[in-house]
Design brief:
By secondary structure, the protein is mainly beta. 6% of the residues lie in helices and 50% in strands. It has a five-stranded mixed beta sheet with strand order 29-30-33-35-34, with no helix packed on it.
Length: 461
Amino acid sequence: MKKQNQAIIMKRIISTLKSEKWTTRFLPGSRKAVCALLAVAGTAASAWSQTSPLYMIYGQPVAPAFSTTLIYQGGLQIGSYLHASQDELAIAVAGGTVRQVSYYDGAGSEYTLAGVPTGTQYQVIPAVYDGTSDGTSIYGWNWFTASLEKYDLNWNYQSTLFSLGSSYSRSFMGVTYDSQNNSVWIAPRGFGPQGVLYDYSLDGQLLGTLNLANSLAVGNGLAYDPADNTLWFFSWTDQRYEQYSKDGSLLNTLTGMTRIYGAEFASIPEPPVQPPTITCPTQIVVNNDPSQCSALVSYPMPITSGGTGNVLLVCSPPSGSAFPIGTTTVTCTATDEAGNTAMCSFNVTVNDTELPVASCAVVKAPVLHTNPLRIVGWFQLLATDNCDPDPLLYIKGSAGSFVAGPFHNGDQVEIAHGRSLIPGQAPSTFGGNIATIQLNGDALLWAVDSSGNTSTPIKCK
């Protein structure tokens, strides 16, 4: 099980750091101590819930004292690296790099998360004992002035945020930034109170305290893990690492190590959640169903990919719906189990291709008249259509070009046709007729609906 846990942890780190290679270099004379530390840590690995890598400054009892940073995850040491500058003690992790400086001469270096020097060098005023970062700034504890100082990410001094006063001068304080509270926790190691961690706002207001398991404990290696909102503290008194919930509950301990100074977590970024992608079909064009002003349309469903877990696809109007004449936009939404969504849309166009139907109902049978010779009858003009409730009606003579109309369904007209008549249309109110029409040749009637469909002409006789 221990080997399996180690394999899982190493796989996670390697995938996070991509092509980076961890270094496993140790100082002469310190290999036995570090190996023993690793062995003890390995026996406790199954009890740890730590997911983020923890970077800790190990101070060996021989010069140069502060020359190694150990990297732990899940209670196991997964790497280490030697410092590019001597006595780098203050540590801050930000922007995917580790930024360390010496509290003796202020020199410092930047490293990748794998411990490879990037070539960036720092120079600060000496006396910064520990550091931490909120991702945009670095906060350093000045042990000489007992104050929290703000720096940019290149360790350039910005301002002093607050001081605990001269009585705490030369007090070794470990600090770590609490991203949940936007505050800093302080752990006294040298002079000052024992057995307590202190939570301060960035303007120096005491927000709360946390009582350690040992009321006489002092130490460093204070680090806040944003992955599980816990505090880690290395007790110099008990020579062990302790993990606390912020209500003061001791969650885990890790023994077998010694002389830990500054420490900070580097949160492993979760793999970016890829929202689902969705691709809609192209525009669909169909004709109306017979005698209907619509069409039942079954369209191909959009293609989805990606997302978290199962992806729910909903389209409106759904496939198989009756789509009206004209263009309707179909909107489709893909939603994965994480709530991520993607949308696409396409048009369904239904064309009205059905012809209207025109007819003549005889109201007064045609009668032959003379002087001039003509046939005169009264007719009711009728039209039906699958969509248009009122198609327009037109009449023309078979031997001429004049077109009378437009008329509406139900209109009654008088039609006279003869060779000598002058084609034309005049309003009428006689006998219920709305117009009198004169034509050359037979009277031909047709209807045109709102879609422009034109019926086959018929004779009104």
